Amino acid sequence: MHRVKKLLPRMAGGSFAIMSFSYAYFFLPLYLDHLGLKSQATVGWVLGAFYAASTLPRPFMAFLVERFTFRATLTGAALCGAVGSIGLALSGVTLPFLILSRVLMGFGFGLFLVSLTTYQTIAIPREVRGGAFALITIGAMAPFLCVVPLLDWLLQHGGYGVYPWFGPLVALACALVGMTFAGVDRDEGAARRGAEWGTYSQLFRLARARVMFLAVFIYGMTDAAVISIPVLALSKGLLSSYFMVTFAAGAILTRLAGFRLMDAFPKDIVYTLMAAWNAFSLFGTSFSSSPHAFAFWGLLYGIGVGVGFPLSLAMIGEAAPPGLHPKATAVVWFILDGCFFLTPVVVGYTSALLGVAGAFRVLPAILFFAAPAVYFFLWRPQGEKGLP
Protein backbone atom coordinates (compact mmCIF):
# COMPACT_ATOMS: atom_id res chain seq x y z
CA MET A 1 0.00 0.00 0.00
CA HIS A 2 2.93 2.34 0.76
CA ARG A 3 4.18 1.85 -2.80
CA VAL A 4 0.73 2.72 -4.18
CA LYS A 5 0.64 5.93 -2.14
CA LYS A 6 4.00 6.92 -3.61
CA LEU A 7 2.69 6.36 -7.14
CA LEU A 8 -0.67 8.11 -6.70
CA PRO A 9 0.66 11.67 -7.35
CA ARG A 10 2.24 10.55 -10.62
CA MET A 11 -0.93 8.73 -11.70
CA ALA A 12 -3.26 11.60 -10.73
CA GLY A 13 -0.87 14.06 -12.37
CA GLY A 14 -0.98 12.07 -15.58
CA SER A 15 -4.79 12.03 -15.52
CA PHE A 16 -4.91 15.78 -14.85
CA ALA A 17 -2.46 16.56 -17.65
CA ILE A 18 -4.06 14.44 -20.37
CA MET A 19 -7.62 15.52 -19.54
CA SER A 20 -6.47 19.16 -19.48
CA PHE A 21 -5.23 18.55 -23.02
CA SER A 22 -8.67 17.28 -24.06
CA TYR A 23 -10.70 19.93 -22.20
CA ALA A 24 -8.54 22.70 -23.67
CA TYR A 25 -10.37 22.19 -26.96
CA PHE A 26 -13.90 22.58 -25.61
CA PHE A 27 -13.73 26.09 -27.04
CA LEU A 28 -12.30 25.08 -30.41
CA PRO A 29 -15.56 25.94 -32.25
CA LEU A 30 -15.37 29.50 -30.87
CA TYR A 31 -11.74 29.79 -31.95
CA LEU A 32 -12.48 28.51 -35.45
CA ASP A 33 -15.46 30.85 -35.73
CA HIS A 34 -13.15 33.72 -34.77
CA LEU A 35 -10.81 32.69 -37.60
CA GLY A 36 -13.72 32.80 -40.05
CA LEU A 37 -14.69 29.12 -40.26
CA LYS A 38 -18.46 29.48 -40.04
CA SER A 39 -19.71 26.16 -41.45
CA GLN A 40 -21.02 24.02 -38.60
CA ALA A 41 -20.69 20.91 -40.75
CA THR A 42 -17.01 21.61 -41.34
CA VAL A 43 -16.43 22.36 -37.66
CA GLY A 44 -18.15 19.06 -36.88
CA TRP A 45 -15.64 17.18 -39.03
CA VAL A 46 -12.76 18.92 -37.30
CA LEU A 47 -14.14 18.06 -33.85
CA GLY A 48 -15.09 14.50 -34.79
CA ALA A 49 -11.66 13.69 -36.23
CA PHE A 50 -10.18 13.84 -32.71
CA TYR A 51 -12.70 11.42 -31.20
CA ALA A 52 -12.53 9.03 -34.14
CA ALA A 53 -8.73 8.91 -33.95
CA SER A 54 -8.77 8.38 -30.19
CA THR A 55 -11.46 5.69 -30.20
CA LEU A 56 -11.25 3.55 -33.33
CA PRO A 57 -7.57 2.50 -32.95
CA ARG A 58 -7.98 1.58 -29.27
CA PRO A 59 -7.71 -2.20 -29.89
CA PHE A 60 -4.47 -1.62 -31.81
CA MET A 61 -3.10 0.59 -29.03
CA ALA A 62 -3.03 -2.43 -26.72
CA PHE A 63 -0.33 -3.99 -28.90
CA LEU A 64 1.82 -0.86 -28.54
CA VAL A 65 1.45 -0.96 -24.76
CA GLU A 66 2.50 -4.62 -24.75
CA ARG A 67 5.44 -4.04 -27.07
CA PHE A 68 7.03 -0.92 -25.55
CA THR A 69 7.77 0.42 -22.07
CA PHE A 70 5.31 2.69 -20.31
CA ARG A 71 7.81 5.54 -20.60
CA ALA A 72 7.97 5.09 -24.38
CA THR A 73 4.21 4.84 -24.95
CA LEU A 74 3.29 7.68 -22.60
CA THR A 75 5.99 10.05 -23.85
CA GLY A 76 5.44 9.09 -27.49
CA ALA A 77 1.68 9.59 -27.15
CA ALA A 78 2.20 13.02 -25.58
CA LEU A 79 4.64 14.09 -28.29
CA CYS A 80 2.17 12.93 -30.94
CA GLY A 81 -0.45 15.15 -29.29
CA ALA A 82 2.05 18.02 -29.14
CA VAL A 83 2.82 17.77 -32.86
CA GLY A 84 -0.87 17.69 -33.67
CA SER A 85 -1.73 20.65 -31.45
CA ILE A 86 1.15 22.72 -32.86
CA GLY A 87 -0.10 21.84 -36.32
CA LEU A 88 -3.58 23.01 -35.38
CA ALA A 89 -2.22 26.31 -34.08
CA LEU A 90 -0.47 26.86 -37.42
CA SER A 91 -3.22 25.53 -39.70
CA GLY A 92 -5.51 28.56 -39.75
CA VAL A 93 -8.71 27.44 -41.48
CA THR A 94 -7.10 25.02 -43.95
CA LEU A 95 -9.37 22.01 -43.54
CA PRO A 96 -6.96 19.16 -44.50
CA PHE A 97 -4.34 20.43 -42.05
CA LEU A 98 -6.94 20.94 -39.32
CA ILE A 99 -8.23 17.38 -39.67
CA LEU A 100 -4.73 15.87 -39.85
CA SER A 101 -3.75 17.80 -36.73
CA ARG A 102 -6.84 16.62 -34.88
CA VAL A 103 -6.16 13.00 -35.91
CA LEU A 104 -2.64 13.19 -34.45
CA MET A 105 -4.01 14.78 -31.28
CA GLY A 106 -6.71 12.14 -30.92
CA PHE A 107 -4.35 9.22 -31.44
CA GLY A 108 -1.92 10.60 -28.88
CA PHE A 109 -4.74 11.21 -26.39
CA GLY A 110 -6.12 7.68 -26.80
CA LEU A 111 -2.74 5.96 -26.52
CA PHE A 112 -1.83 7.95 -23.41
CA LEU A 113 -5.06 6.89 -21.67
CA VAL A 114 -4.69 3.21 -22.58
CA SER A 115 -1.07 3.15 -21.45
CA LEU A 116 -1.71 5.02 -18.19
CA THR A 117 -4.75 2.91 -17.26
CA THR A 118 -2.91 -0.33 -18.06
CA TYR A 119 -0.07 0.69 -15.78
CA GLN A 120 -2.53 1.55 -13.01
CA THR A 121 -4.26 -1.82 -13.36
CA ILE A 122 -0.93 -3.65 -13.12
CA ALA A 123 0.59 -1.57 -10.32
CA ILE A 124 -2.40 -1.22 -7.96
CA PRO A 125 -3.31 -4.28 -5.86
CA ARG A 126 -6.82 -5.59 -6.28
CA GLU A 127 -7.83 -4.94 -2.66
CA VAL A 128 -7.31 -1.15 -2.93
CA ARG A 129 -7.96 -0.69 -6.65
CA GLY A 130 -11.38 0.97 -6.32
CA GLY A 131 -10.22 3.61 -3.85
CA ALA A 132 -7.02 4.28 -5.75
CA PHE A 133 -8.87 4.82 -9.02
CA ALA A 134 -11.29 7.15 -7.22
CA LEU A 135 -8.40 9.36 -6.12
CA ILE A 136 -6.65 9.16 -9.49
CA THR A 137 -9.76 10.19 -11.42
CA ILE A 138 -10.08 13.33 -9.30
CA GLY A 139 -7.23 14.48 -11.48
CA ALA A 140 -9.36 13.77 -14.53
CA MET A 141 -12.23 15.93 -13.22
CA ALA A 142 -10.16 18.81 -11.83
CA PRO A 143 -9.45 20.45 -15.23
CA PHE A 144 -13.19 20.92 -15.61
CA LEU A 145 -13.09 23.27 -12.64
CA CYS A 146 -9.85 25.13 -13.44
CA VAL A 147 -8.73 24.74 -17.07
CA VAL A 148 -12.14 25.29 -18.67
CA PRO A 149 -12.95 28.46 -16.68
CA LEU A 150 -9.45 29.81 -17.35
CA LEU A 151 -9.75 29.37 -21.10
CA ASP A 152 -13.30 30.69 -21.07
CA TRP A 153 -12.01 33.85 -19.34
CA LEU A 154 -9.12 34.07 -21.80
CA LEU A 155 -11.39 34.02 -24.85
CA GLN A 156 -13.86 36.44 -23.30
CA HIS A 157 -10.97 38.87 -22.98
CA GLY A 158 -9.87 38.44 -26.59
CA GLY A 159 -7.02 35.99 -26.07
CA TYR A 160 -7.55 34.19 -29.36
CA GLY A 161 -3.88 34.50 -30.29
CA VAL A 162 -2.78 32.77 -27.10
CA TYR A 163 -5.51 30.13 -26.93
CA PRO A 164 -4.22 27.63 -29.57
CA TRP A 165 -0.83 27.42 -27.83
CA PHE A 166 -2.28 26.22 -24.54
CA GLY A 167 -2.75 22.71 -26.00
CA PRO A 168 0.91 22.23 -27.04
CA LEU A 169 2.01 23.45 -23.61
CA VAL A 170 -0.16 20.87 -21.85
CA ALA A 171 0.93 18.13 -24.26
CA LEU A 172 4.56 18.82 -23.36
CA ALA A 173 3.57 18.60 -19.69
CA CYS A 174 2.12 15.15 -20.47
CA ALA A 175 5.45 14.18 -22.04
CA LEU A 176 7.25 15.24 -18.86
CA VAL A 177 4.90 13.05 -16.83
CA GLY A 178 5.62 10.17 -19.20
CA MET A 179 9.34 10.62 -18.70
CA THR A 180 8.94 10.06 -14.96
CA PHE A 181 7.90 6.48 -15.64
CA ALA A 182 11.50 5.46 -16.32
CA GLY A 183 11.93 4.14 -12.77
CA VAL A 184 8.63 2.31 -12.96
CA ASP A 185 9.74 0.49 -16.07
CA ARG A 186 12.87 -0.68 -14.31
CA ASP A 187 10.71 -2.13 -11.54
CA GLU A 188 8.17 -3.71 -13.86
CA GLY A 189 10.47 -4.50 -16.78
CA ALA A 190 11.29 -8.11 -15.96
CA ALA A 191 7.64 -9.00 -15.47
CA ARG A 192 6.64 -7.26 -18.71
CA ARG A 193 9.40 -8.91 -20.77
CA GLY A 194 8.39 -12.30 -19.45
CA ALA A 195 4.68 -11.74 -19.77
CA GLU A 196 2.66 -14.02 -21.96
CA TRP A 197 0.31 -11.51 -23.54
CA GLY A 198 -3.03 -13.01 -24.42
CA THR A 199 -5.13 -12.51 -27.54
CA TYR A 200 -8.45 -10.78 -28.09
CA SER A 201 -10.07 -14.16 -28.74
CA GLN A 202 -8.89 -15.34 -25.32
CA LEU A 203 -10.26 -12.17 -23.75
CA PHE A 204 -13.71 -12.56 -25.26
CA ARG A 205 -13.84 -16.21 -24.26
CA LEU A 206 -13.92 -15.05 -20.63
CA ALA A 207 -17.60 -14.92 -19.70
CA ARG A 208 -17.03 -12.47 -16.86
CA ALA A 209 -15.13 -10.12 -19.17
CA ARG A 210 -17.97 -10.19 -21.73
CA VAL A 211 -20.54 -9.40 -19.06
CA MET A 212 -18.38 -6.61 -17.66
CA PHE A 213 -18.08 -5.06 -21.14
CA LEU A 214 -21.89 -5.11 -21.43
CA ALA A 215 -22.22 -3.50 -17.99
CA VAL A 216 -19.65 -0.85 -19.00
CA PHE A 217 -21.71 -0.11 -22.11
CA ILE A 218 -24.88 0.47 -20.04
CA TYR A 219 -23.01 2.64 -17.57
CA GLY A 220 -21.20 4.43 -20.42
CA MET A 221 -24.51 5.42 -22.03
CA THR A 222 -25.54 7.13 -18.78
CA ASP A 223 -22.12 8.74 -18.46
CA ALA A 224 -22.06 10.05 -22.03
CA ALA A 225 -25.52 11.61 -21.67
CA VAL A 226 -23.83 14.57 -20.01
CA ILE A 227 -22.81 15.97 -23.40
CA SER A 228 -26.51 16.27 -24.32
CA ILE A 229 -27.34 18.26 -21.17
CA PRO A 230 -26.81 21.60 -22.98
CA VAL A 231 -29.51 20.59 -25.47
CA LEU A 232 -31.92 19.80 -22.63
CA ALA A 233 -31.02 23.06 -20.89
CA LEU A 234 -31.67 25.04 -24.07
CA SER A 235 -35.08 23.42 -24.50
CA LYS A 236 -36.01 24.52 -20.97
CA GLY A 237 -34.47 27.99 -21.13
CA LEU A 238 -31.90 27.13 -18.46
CA LEU A 239 -28.12 27.47 -18.33
CA SER A 240 -26.31 24.15 -18.58
CA SER A 241 -23.69 25.46 -16.13
CA TYR A 242 -26.17 25.01 -13.27
CA PHE A 243 -26.01 21.27 -13.91
CA MET A 244 -22.36 21.05 -14.95
CA VAL A 245 -20.83 22.82 -11.96
CA THR A 246 -22.70 20.75 -9.36
CA PHE A 247 -22.05 17.61 -11.40
CA ALA A 248 -18.28 18.18 -11.34
CA ALA A 249 -18.29 19.22 -7.68
CA GLY A 250 -20.39 16.19 -6.71
CA ALA A 251 -18.07 13.79 -8.54
CA ILE A 252 -14.91 15.22 -6.98
CA LEU A 253 -16.31 15.44 -3.45
CA THR A 254 -17.66 11.87 -3.67
CA ARG A 255 -14.25 10.54 -4.66
CA LEU A 256 -12.50 12.52 -1.94
CA ALA A 257 -14.93 11.54 0.81
CA GLY A 258 -15.69 7.98 -0.25
CA PHE A 259 -12.51 6.55 -1.77
CA ARG A 260 -11.94 4.32 1.27
CA LEU A 261 -15.36 2.73 0.73
CA MET A 262 -14.80 1.88 -2.94
CA ASP A 263 -13.35 -1.52 -2.05
CA ALA A 264 -15.62 -2.23 0.93
CA PHE A 265 -18.47 -3.65 -1.17
CA PRO A 266 -18.65 -5.96 -4.22
CA LYS A 267 -17.76 -3.83 -7.23
CA ASP A 268 -20.27 -5.47 -9.58
CA ILE A 269 -23.17 -4.63 -7.24
CA VAL A 270 -22.03 -1.04 -6.66
CA TYR A 271 -21.42 -0.55 -10.38
CA THR A 272 -24.94 -1.75 -11.18
CA LEU A 273 -26.40 0.60 -8.59
CA MET A 274 -24.44 3.55 -9.96
CA ALA A 275 -25.63 2.91 -13.53
CA ALA A 276 -29.22 2.86 -12.25
CA TRP A 277 -28.52 5.94 -10.06
CA ASN A 278 -27.23 7.88 -13.08
CA ALA A 279 -30.23 6.86 -15.14
CA PHE A 280 -32.60 7.96 -12.38
CA SER A 281 -30.77 11.30 -12.08
CA LEU A 282 -31.07 11.93 -15.80
CA PHE A 283 -34.76 11.01 -15.65
CA GLY A 284 -35.27 13.51 -12.85
CA THR A 285 -33.33 16.18 -14.73
CA SER A 286 -35.87 16.00 -17.55
CA PHE A 287 -38.53 17.40 -15.18
CA SER A 288 -36.41 20.35 -14.00
CA SER A 289 -37.99 23.73 -14.49
CA SER A 290 -35.73 25.92 -12.35
CA PRO A 291 -31.99 26.49 -11.88
CA HIS A 292 -32.15 25.02 -8.38
CA ALA A 293 -33.73 21.80 -9.65
CA PHE A 294 -31.19 21.58 -12.47
CA ALA A 295 -28.35 22.00 -9.97
CA PHE A 296 -29.87 19.43 -7.59
CA TRP A 297 -30.08 16.72 -10.23
CA GLY A 298 -26.59 17.61 -11.45
CA LEU A 299 -25.28 17.01 -7.93
CA LEU A 300 -26.99 13.61 -7.74
CA TYR A 301 -25.64 12.70 -11.18
CA GLY A 302 -22.16 13.76 -10.08
CA ILE A 303 -22.33 11.37 -7.11
CA GLY A 304 -23.10 8.50 -9.48
CA VAL A 305 -20.27 9.40 -11.84
CA GLY A 306 -17.97 9.94 -8.86
CA VAL A 307 -18.37 6.28 -7.94
CA GLY A 308 -19.19 4.65 -11.26
CA PHE A 309 -16.43 5.93 -13.52
CA PRO A 310 -13.51 4.84 -11.30
CA LEU A 311 -15.10 1.40 -11.00
CA SER A 312 -15.22 1.15 -14.81
CA LEU A 313 -11.42 1.13 -14.72
CA ALA A 314 -10.91 -0.66 -11.41
CA MET A 315 -12.88 -3.74 -12.54
CA ILE A 316 -10.55 -4.40 -15.48
CA GLY A 317 -8.09 -6.19 -13.24
CA GLU A 318 -10.82 -8.41 -11.82
CA ALA A 319 -12.38 -9.44 -15.12
CA ALA A 320 -9.19 -10.53 -16.88
CA PRO A 321 -5.80 -12.01 -15.89
CA PRO A 322 -2.66 -9.83 -16.06
CA GLY A 323 -1.69 -11.09 -19.51
CA LEU A 324 -4.93 -9.65 -20.90
CA HIS A 325 -4.91 -6.33 -19.02
CA PRO A 326 -3.72 -4.15 -21.95
CA LYS A 327 -6.38 -5.53 -24.28
CA ALA A 328 -9.13 -5.40 -21.64
CA THR A 329 -8.17 -1.79 -20.92
CA ALA A 330 -8.34 -0.93 -24.61
CA VAL A 331 -11.80 -2.52 -24.93
CA VAL A 332 -13.18 -0.68 -21.88
CA TRP A 333 -11.94 2.68 -23.16
CA PHE A 334 -13.27 1.83 -26.63
CA ILE A 335 -16.73 1.21 -25.14
CA LEU A 336 -16.72 4.31 -22.94
CA ASP A 337 -15.61 6.57 -25.77
CA GLY A 338 -17.91 4.85 -28.24
CA CYS A 339 -20.84 5.80 -26.02
CA PHE A 340 -19.91 9.45 -26.54
CA PHE A 341 -20.45 8.82 -30.26
CA LEU A 342 -23.65 6.86 -29.84
CA THR A 343 -25.51 8.74 -27.11
CA PRO A 344 -25.91 12.10 -28.93
CA VAL A 345 -27.16 10.27 -32.01
CA VAL A 346 -29.72 8.26 -30.04
CA VAL A 347 -30.82 11.33 -28.08
CA GLY A 348 -31.10 13.30 -31.32
CA TYR A 349 -33.33 10.78 -33.08
CA THR A 350 -35.44 10.14 -29.98
CA SER A 351 -35.84 13.90 -29.45
CA ALA A 352 -37.21 14.21 -32.95
CA LEU A 353 -40.01 11.82 -31.96
CA LEU A 354 -40.60 12.64 -28.31
CA GLY A 355 -38.97 16.01 -27.72
CA VAL A 356 -35.75 16.53 -25.77
CA ALA A 357 -37.38 16.05 -22.36
CA GLY A 358 -39.11 12.91 -23.63
CA ALA A 359 -35.79 11.50 -24.81
CA PHE A 360 -34.32 12.13 -21.35
CA ARG A 361 -37.18 10.14 -19.85
CA VAL A 362 -37.41 7.15 -22.18
CA LEU A 363 -33.70 6.40 -22.63
CA PRO A 364 -32.73 6.65 -18.94
CA ALA A 365 -35.77 4.52 -18.07
CA ILE A 366 -34.51 1.78 -20.38
CA LEU A 367 -31.01 1.97 -18.89
CA PHE A 368 -32.42 2.03 -15.35
CA PHE A 369 -33.96 -1.41 -15.85
CA ALA A 370 -31.19 -2.76 -18.10
CA ALA A 371 -28.48 -2.36 -15.44
CA PRO A 372 -30.03 -4.67 -12.81
CA ALA A 373 -31.17 -7.08 -15.53
CA VAL A 374 -27.57 -7.57 -16.65
CA TYR A 375 -26.47 -8.08 -13.06
CA PHE A 376 -29.14 -10.58 -12.01
CA PHE A 377 -29.30 -12.60 -15.24
CA LEU A 378 -25.68 -12.47 -16.42
CA TRP A 379 -23.25 -11.08 -13.87
CA ARG A 380 -24.29 -12.67 -10.59
CA PRO A 381 -24.50 -16.21 -12.07
CA GLN A 382 -20.82 -15.91 -12.99
CA GLY A 383 -19.87 -15.84 -9.31
CA GLU A 384 -16.11 -16.06 -9.11
CA LYS A 385 -15.58 -17.88 -12.40
CA GLY A 386 -14.29 -14.90 -14.31
CA LEU A 387 -11.82 -13.67 -11.70
CA PRO A 388 -8.12 -14.09 -12.39
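That was protein one. Protein two is written in the same sequence-then-structure order:
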Amino acid sequence: MKLWTEKRMIKPPLPPKLAVASLKLCPLCDSLNARRNPTCFVCGWQGEFIHDAHRVHLSLVLLLEQCPELSEGVRLAPPKRPLLSRMRSFLLERVRKRKPLDLWA
Protein backbone atom coordinates (compact mmCIF):
# COMPACT_ATOMS: atom_id res chain seq x y z
CA MET A 1 0.00 0.00 0.00
CA LYS A 2 1.44 3.38 -1.00
CA LEU A 3 1.10 6.49 1.09
CA TRP A 4 0.21 9.85 -0.42
CA THR A 5 3.87 10.91 -0.08
CA GLU A 6 5.03 8.01 -2.24
CA LYS A 7 2.45 8.78 -4.93
CA ARG A 8 3.96 12.26 -5.45
CA MET A 9 0.75 14.03 -4.52
CA ILE A 10 1.22 17.72 -3.81
CA LYS A 11 -1.08 17.95 -0.80
CA PRO A 12 -2.03 15.35 1.79
CA PRO A 13 -5.67 14.23 1.86
CA LEU A 14 -6.27 16.14 5.10
CA PRO A 15 -4.30 18.76 6.95
CA PRO A 16 -2.49 17.30 9.98
CA LYS A 17 -4.06 19.89 12.30
CA LEU A 18 -7.51 18.51 11.58
CA ALA A 19 -6.43 14.95 12.33
CA VAL A 20 -4.60 15.85 15.53
CA ALA A 21 -7.29 18.19 16.78
CA SER A 22 -10.25 15.85 16.57
CA LEU A 23 -8.99 12.25 16.59
CA LYS A 24 -7.24 9.76 18.85
CA LEU A 25 -6.02 6.20 18.32
CA CYS A 26 -7.08 3.13 20.28
CA PRO A 27 -4.04 1.18 21.52
CA LEU A 28 -5.98 -2.10 21.60
CA CYS A 29 -7.51 -2.26 18.11
CA ASP A 30 -5.71 0.65 16.33
CA SER A 31 -8.95 2.30 15.26
CA LEU A 32 -9.45 6.04 14.99
CA ASN A 33 -11.86 7.57 17.47
CA ALA A 34 -13.20 11.03 18.09
CA ARG A 35 -11.43 12.74 20.99
CA ARG A 36 -14.67 13.60 22.73
CA ASN A 37 -15.70 9.91 23.01
CA PRO A 38 -14.57 8.31 26.29
CA THR A 39 -14.63 4.75 24.87
CA CYS A 40 -13.50 3.13 21.63
CA PHE A 41 -16.46 2.57 19.33
CA VAL A 42 -14.93 -0.67 17.95
CA CYS A 43 -13.69 -2.59 21.00
CA GLY A 44 -15.03 -0.57 23.95
CA TRP A 45 -11.59 0.33 25.37
CA GLN A 46 -11.84 2.86 28.21
CA GLY A 47 -8.19 3.33 29.12
CA GLU A 48 -5.53 5.72 27.86
CA PHE A 49 -5.63 6.52 24.12
CA ILE A 50 -2.77 7.44 21.78
CA HIS A 51 -2.70 11.18 21.04
CA ASP A 52 0.62 11.24 19.15
CA ALA A 53 0.09 13.55 16.16
CA HIS A 54 2.28 11.55 13.80
CA ARG A 55 0.63 8.19 14.54
CA VAL A 56 -2.89 9.62 14.37
CA HIS A 57 -2.18 11.32 11.05
CA LEU A 58 -0.56 8.19 9.62
CA SER A 59 -3.59 6.10 10.63
CA LEU A 60 -5.91 8.61 9.00
CA VAL A 61 -3.90 8.60 5.77
CA LEU A 62 -3.91 4.80 5.71
CA LEU A 63 -7.68 4.80 6.25
CA LEU A 64 -8.15 7.22 3.36
CA GLU A 65 -5.93 5.02 1.20
CA GLN A 66 -8.20 2.04 1.89
CA CYS A 67 -11.43 4.02 1.51
CA PRO A 68 -10.83 7.00 -0.82
CA GLU A 69 -14.53 7.87 -0.85
CA LEU A 70 -14.18 9.07 2.74
CA SER A 71 -11.96 11.95 1.62
CA GLU A 72 -14.80 13.24 -0.55
CA GLY A 73 -16.91 13.78 2.55
CA VAL A 74 -14.31 15.96 4.22
CA ARG A 75 -14.23 19.35 2.59
CA LEU A 76 -12.59 22.36 4.12
CA ALA A 77 -13.94 25.84 3.57
CA PRO A 78 -12.20 27.60 0.69
CA PRO A 79 -10.03 30.54 1.71
CA LYS A 80 -11.79 33.90 1.68
CA ARG A 81 -10.78 36.54 -0.79
CA PRO A 82 -9.28 39.71 0.66
CA LEU A 83 -11.73 42.32 1.89
CA LEU A 84 -10.89 44.92 -0.76
CA SER A 85 -11.38 42.40 -3.52
CA ARG A 86 -14.78 41.38 -2.15
CA MET A 87 -15.85 45.04 -1.78
CA ARG A 88 -14.74 45.84 -5.33
CA SER A 89 -16.70 42.87 -6.71
CA PHE A 90 -19.78 43.89 -4.75
CA LEU A 91 -19.68 47.48 -5.99
CA LEU A 92 -19.06 46.49 -9.60
CA GLU A 93 -21.95 44.07 -9.46
CA ARG A 94 -24.28 46.77 -8.13
CA VAL A 95 -23.21 49.22 -10.86
CA ARG A 96 -23.76 46.65 -13.59
CA LYS A 97 -27.26 45.77 -12.35
CA ARG A 98 -28.37 49.40 -11.95
CA LYS A 99 -30.83 50.69 -14.52
CA PRO A 100 -29.66 53.67 -16.55
CA LEU A 101 -30.65 57.07 -15.20
CA ASP A 102 -33.36 58.82 -17.23
CA LEU A 103 -32.29 62.48 -17.42
CA TRP A 104 -35.33 63.57 -19.47
CA ALA A 105 -37.89 62.72 -16.80
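Helices lie at 16-22, 53-66, 69-73, 83-97. Keep this in mind for the problem set.
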